[in-house]
Amino acid sequence: MKIVIDRNIPFAAGPLAEVAEVVSLPGDAISRETLLDADALITRTRTRCDASTLADTAVSFVGTATIGTDHIDLPYCRDHGIEVANAPGCNAPAVAQWVMAAVAAWLPEGKPLSDLTIGVVGAGHVGQIVIRWARGLGMNVLVCDPPRAEAEGASPAYPYVSLDRIAAEADVITFHTPLTREGAHPTFHLADRAFLSALRRRPLLLNAARGPVADNAALVEALDSGLLSAVGIDCWEGEPAISDALLDRALVATPHIAGYSREGKIRATQMVLDALARHFSLPTLAADAEAPKPVAETVSPDTIDYDILADTRALKAAPHDFELLRNTYPLRPESRDASTIA
Fold first, then answer.
1. Which residues contact 276 (CB under 8 A, 6 or more apart)?
2. Is the pLDDT of residue 20 over 90?
3. With CB atoms counted within 10 Å of each terminal CB, which end of the chain scores lower, N or C?
4. Residue 339 clears pLDDT 90, i.e. is over it
5. What is the pLDDT of residues 257-282, one digit of tens each?
6. Is 239 part of the annotated catalytic residue set?
């Protein structure tokens, strides 16, 4: 068996080498020619997996060590008998850590977190951790997730509100949705000029979801007009060719590394290895790292433990090195559980 893997996926080389010939390549060097005789592809978001890459190859399994599958043509894979596996929730604690670190970086000195209302748009894997941690920190939490609200109805755990209410009442607004362009609730440019013009509290706006969830040009206009007090951006439209204007104005600006914790990478690799082993009826494949500890139930300002402004300075100093900064990012530890700290 032959497996082609993005060389920036950690903790996988050892277990894969035990069962297959492994070809490790940069994500942007993976092509149809490199996959002609490959049985499986393990990748990240920088490799487009569609007919141009997969047609007439031997690939029957595509695993992405990421939450999202925007880079994979799912209908094509389904129609051609190619199983697709991703890693939902793998880096949710790290993204929640990024959110809390961004809030801490923005919070005016002397203002307690308990004075803030945070609007969480999207109550999936990341959103649920943000909600739990924010409540534990004493913040008032508003949750907007129309698809979940329609599916679940009224929920005492998450009393869903409209996006309009979040625009009116939130001091911090953070997006944690997939990127969708069709259907009843598309998320493409969810934070657009209309939404931003409805803001009433000059909030901090955070996007660590997908770049096009927020209209980057509209964010610049909202900052310049005073509708927003600050923004924190990890996911950018057009990355790695990001907006210089938004980069210049952003309080927090990182190169799509919000989810780049060591624990998150271990989880992602293990989830893909598990799916690969099932697909090919292989023995258990264990990621080449110690299994992560349970996700923190609660955090405190001390246990968030992430200097997000250092990552911001690095990107602002070298924006054209976006991909290099992302690919060579030193994986950080996730937030510790506040309940374990004496």
1. 3, 40, 42, 61, 63, 85, 282, 285
2. yes
3. C
4. no
5. 999 999 999 999 999 999 999 999 99
6. yes
Q: What is the mean pLDDT of the chain?
A: 96
Q: In this predicted model, what pLDDT tens digit does every residue of 147-205 receive, in sequence order?
A: 999 998 877 777 899 999 999 999 999 999 999 999 999 999 999 999 999 999 999 99
Active-site hit among 44, 71, 201, 210: 210
Torsion of CA 233, 234, 236, 241, to 10 degrees: 110
Distance of alpha carbon 318 from alpha carbon 70, whole angstroms: 27
Tokens of 210: 């997908």
256, 262, 267, 332: the active-site residue: 256
Residues in the chain: 342
Q: Residue 307, Cβ neighbours under 10 Å: how many?
A: 11
Model confidence at 296: pLDDT above 70: yes
Q: Between 92-106 and 125-136, two packed helices, what is the crossing angle to 10 degrees?
A: 40
Annotation says 256 is catalytic? yes
Q: Which of 44, 176, 239, 326 is catalytic?
A: 239
Beta bridge partners of 120: 143, 174
User: Is the pLDDT reported for residue 218 higher than 60?
Assistant: yes
In SS3 terms, 82-108 reads as: CEEECCCCCCHHHHHHHHHHHHHHHCC
The question of whether 210 is a catalytic residue gets the answer yes
DSSP string, 215-230: -HHHHHHHHHHTS-SE
Using an 8 Å Cβ cutoff, are 326 and 256 in contact? yes
* Alpha-helical runs (H) found in the chain: 13-17, 32-35, 51-54, 74-79, 92-106, 125-136, 146-152, 163-169, 193-197, 216-225, 244-249, 262-280, 301-304, 308-317, 322-327
User: What residue type is 131 in one-letter code?
Assistant: I
Chain centre distance of CA 158? 21
